[in-house]
Amino acid sequence: ELQQRMTEIEEEQAKFKLIQSEMKHSFNRPTSQPVVPIKTLSPEEMEEADGRSVYVGNVDYSCTEAELESHFHGCGSISRVTILRDKFTKHSKGFAYVEFADTDGRKNSIAMNESLLKGRQIKVTEKRTNRPGISSPVRFSSLSKVNRGHGGAIVKYAPVYVGYRGREG
């Protein structure tokens, strides 16, 4: 009985070695499909695409690209629908972008602002173009310095500069 079990194990081991060698050879073969490089858009092309796109806010988290496309179908020919998602959980962030084939579709879709999609009132506005190198200014920098270092207490006043009062005497 032990001898029979040993022969079964050796046969199984031979099968695994055969499968392993087949896998090794299949990975070394060139793929049948060529690798297609991803086309990057120039800043001018991106700005032109943004001119044909709208931002859609307050989108239901269960909404799909197909449902958004059918909602905006009457506005014009749609090139692309993008629902932004969390990169780890893949859950919707609650907003999307719809790119139309022409600017007329974008103009028509602005009229869909405050329409209902899956029971939620959506917000449709023109997509803004992000320009590289422009960041939001630091706001209230002098006030934020006032609130530091007081043991966590929130200081509700800020130093006020009265100005030069002249010579008092």
UniProtKB/TrEMBL annotation:
One of its GO terms (molecular function) is poly(A) binding. The keyword Cytoplasm does not apply. InterPro entries: Nucleotide-bd_a/b_plait_sf, RBD_domain_sf, RRM_dom. This is RRM domain-containing protein. GO terms for cellular component: nucleus. Residues 52-129 form the RRM domain. It comes from the Eukaryota. The keyword Amino-acid biosynthesis does not apply. Keywords: RNA-binding.
